[in-house]
Please model this.
Amino acid sequence: MRGRAVLALVGLLALFVLSGCARAPETGLRVGVLAPLTGPFASQGQAMQQSLQLAAEEINRAGGVLGRPVELLFGDSKGTADATRSEALRLIHKEKVNVLLGAYLSEETMAAAEVAAENRVLLMVPVAATNELNARVANEYEKYKYVFRTSYNIDQWAGLMGGFIADMGVSRYAFVGPNIRWNRELAQALRDYLASSGIAPVYEEFYSPKEPALEPIVVALKGKGPGVVVLGDPGQHAINFVKKARDLGLKAPLFSVGGALGDERVARTLPAGGPLYFQAAAWDRTSEEARRFFAAYRERYGYHPVGYADVLARDTLFVLTQAVNKVGSLDVPRLIQTLEQGEFRAACGVYRFDRSHQARWGKGEGLQGMVVEWKDGRAEERWPRI
Amino acid sequence: MEQELQLALSGLLAGFTYALVAVGLTLVFGITRVVNLSHGAFFALGAFVTCSVVQWGGRGFLALPLVFVLSLLLGMGLERWVIRPVRRHHAVVAIVTLAVAIFMEQIFQLVWGPDYQSIPRELPLVGFMGTLVDLQQIAAALVAVVLLLVLFGLLRTRIGMAVRLVAQDPEGAALVGIDVPRVQTVVFGVACGLAAVAGNLTAFAHSIYPAMGRVPLVMALAVVIFGGLGNVHGALVAGLILGLVASGVSFYVSPEWSYITMLLVIAVGLLTRPSGLLGRVGRRD
Amino acid sequence: MNRAAVLAFVLVVSLLAVVPWLTTDRFLLNLLILANIYTIYVLGWDFLGGLAGHSNGGHALSFGGAAYLSGLLTLAGCPAWTIPALSLFGITLVGALLGWLFRRLDGAYLLLATLAVAEVAHELSLALGFTTPEGYTIGGEGGLPVAPLLAREADWFYGCLFWISLFFLALTVLVLYWIRCSLPGLKIKALAQDAVVAQTVGLNPDRFRVATFAAGTLVGGLAGVLYAQYMGVATPSTLSLEFSFVAMTVSIAGGKGTIIGPAVLSYLLNVLLGWLWVAPVVRLLLYSSVAILAARWFFGRGREA
Model:
């Protein structure tokens, strides 16, 4: 038994070594997508996959990239850094992709950035808000210059949400989110942003992401009387929180960072009892391109996308392909230069990257996001006002 | 005072949920010495089926018998064809039930999709002595209690005695003509049914998604072990204690610490009582 | 130890050692490095849970804990060359402490207690952030960077890390297998089977408990330190419950306590599952079905009515 196992191992190894050479790639753009297709974040990974497939079809209908179709190859990042690394390496060395796109979680994205830097391959990051990604680009430019992020970082997120809160005319707010580092940072950034408007938090609490006890939080909030409650959780506990809050009679407006609470199928089942808002990267009113994308998504998959990982992934692919078409080749240094200096129009608006390769979101920039309210199960855009 | 009452109530009701999920697990262990790691997946199955029934226009409560029977049959099939052949090897059983859980999660993802789903509540909350009482949660707890009472009652009948004999002395039970394998299969199915019922009863309160059974499984395991393996009363007490601890810590200290405190309570509790709160079973493989 | 087994072992290790000279394919080398590391990790559980019989529900703590210690020491500014050894030492102490603390617990109770400790560590790893001298925060879900001993940019980085991890894997297999077949192994097994009887022949269960916990944690920690050096980061997923479960299931499926079986199985699984690309959901369905069928095939004594 043991001998056979050893022989099998030896045979397999020989097979791997011999099959080390992959096929020669065709021209056109091969994009390696890293997303969590299984594991606890599979719903976001699938949303990214669905959006990207739609986006690729649209791009190819309009002529493709460098006259040839864009091809998407998917890798499952599974929510861990090492799986992301292995998949990124597989996509680069076996599948011979030209560019990487992804991932979702911070730990995945940092691992992808390492692989991209190592192999001098462009990495476009459509989500993941961690600040250190761009800090690395800024501090170690030569190594990490291949990484670009299209989504908003923590400070920008705070600005997008803070702008709406300041507009609401409240003087006090509360922040509730899962006890994860980026959420704490978001709370801090929001506090700093709103301080200049004289708006202060009366309650800031973080619950365990595994097994939260949400009712005591709601009970505490009822006693504090905030003008709005910010929900930092893009996941399932936000849904639970809204249910508990409205059930227990908390009437204050709830303002979610987006994600799960941007899903209309969920919103329809939530109890009424107070206004419910959420932040999105874009909604129908943001641009004609956005409206068309959302309509196409609804037609293909049966529901309106939540307006975060989905539309941002789509836009990232569009920015990338526009850059490649502008340069006229897949030459990486020229692509980097074009991305750094150029402007790219997509569903969420006009993308411009700063010196740390972060897209510019916020007031006065080409990307503003959208705050949406759920009113009787229907989404209504609220801010920025027209 | 109102706040304290509200908190105590929410803590107890949360604890009841833990206990409900845990009872099936501890029952299975007591009768068959099997740790069923697919227990959480049955909890999720109950929630998903309920979700579908509600989305097709039915009532969540009416889905309960369907959910129970479906899981009972599935569980019995699982015991008979997947677990029984390997039951002698405790460790292999654990792996097999874990594989079943993974399999079921993937089926959920294929059939219902990976996104979070939600169903609305069917019974309202009412004010009572300054606190808000969740009628649906009370109803859920009542159903749970009734089921448990029925279970305890059954255990006192002749059938129940047969079951208890199988738990204590399988060889002896076989000698007096009890069909031991069948008893074990039925008990396993009932336990899976209970888990699914717990999923049905709590489906309105939170979001429903393929991996939703994982945390309840861990909590149920913790409750079962903490309360004493094989001890149903222990599971109930342990569940309620942990529910109250979570609620209390979340309010009086900080919500960040509720899960960690529960874990520490378990670790420290085991240090002082190495066989669980009410544990009678000693060493176990 | 029979001669055939030794020969087979030497053959396999030699063949593996040759790989970096045959190819510089980073994908393949990455796969093999991770296979080496994860196999060491599984062996840690196999020793503690399999051979010594102490079900450890939180083995991820030894792995992720060592990785995080490396990260914390990096943050504290320790010289890079001291970090692996210090991390290993630190996590072994933690293991010994846990062994002593939980010495009265057995079976499922020990499993739960160790699980609880690992879960606390996991929660903390997600929650705690640190501000770097440059002014941005790290930690939490992004993990902690680890100062590398070898320059990651160097061409020979992959090759070197492969040889280092292979060396430690071979060492671990040899040492643990030797222990299993020798007098200390016999004592450990005796205590695992019946501590009361073992005590009558003079074995001290408490001391052995601490020693085996320390050893199991040391091995798991070795894997963690190698991982931290290879990946350059300590991430929360290395402390997760799923990761603890992986060690248990692979060890049990490979033959609890046999050392060789789990080593071979872990290696094969890592390489095969990493190499073959199957659509994600299908992959998991396949994997779980195979596990169920294989269990029936190998262990089913089919006394079906």
In short: Residues 16-25 of chain A have pLDDT under 50 and may be disordered. The first helix of chain A runs from residue 2 to 18. The two ends of chain A are 74 Å apart (CA to CA). Chain A touches chain B through 38 residues (CB under 8 Å).
